[in-house]
Amino acid sequence: QVQLVESGGGVVQPGRSLRLSCAASGFTFNKYGVHWVRQAPGKGLEWLAVISYDGRNKFYADSVKGRFTISRDNSKNTLDLQMDSLRTEDTAVYSCAKGYYDSSGVTALGLDHWGQGTLVTVSS
Amino acid sequence: IQVSQSPSSLSASVGDRVTITCRASQGISSYLAWYQQKAGKAPKFLIYAASTLQSGVPSRFSGSGSGTDFTLTISSLQPEDFATYYCLQVNIYPWTFGQGTKVEIK
Prior knowledge:
By secondary structure, chain A is an all-beta fold. Helices cover 0% and strands 53% of the residues of chain A. The model of chain B has no long low-confidence stretch (mean pLDDT 97).
């Protein structure tokens, strides 16, 4: 079965950096785009970033563009999120998610599997 | 693309028909998905392409719409359906979620 397990969360001061990882199993990792989504305490879901199956294409939400970098290692079935210049408003549970595609495998139609998330707290 | 979801919350009874709406700031064809999230849990994928039920999702859930206006309907609310629901536009990056609708017990 598909499993996505995030790690790397913790408490960090504003302006500092943190790197999150997501270990994937149960599917052919190098055939799917994978995403990061976050949820601040008591708030809604916020889509953050996606990386294509081969790592060539990356897209970001405006709120994190220029501060966060998504990357993947298909040899290790892992997804990372490098978070720099962290702000208090970045405090949230960060989850990785697998893209769901149409029958051609080209068009993404949503996110079908999610990890349980890792909590990042940005506080002085 | 911004997505406005309404209402933000609603109270309903078991057996009620429930409707949740999402409106996109520009046309997104049928590139909309719906999710259900229970407290402390990962979101569950309910519907994609605006109206196609994901495998295993009960038939009391249905989705409709295209362009800018979309609807999630629960035909007969069950106890396990009390949760928060989100829409997600997947037409163009950056993807955007609606603000969520919390369905509570009346």
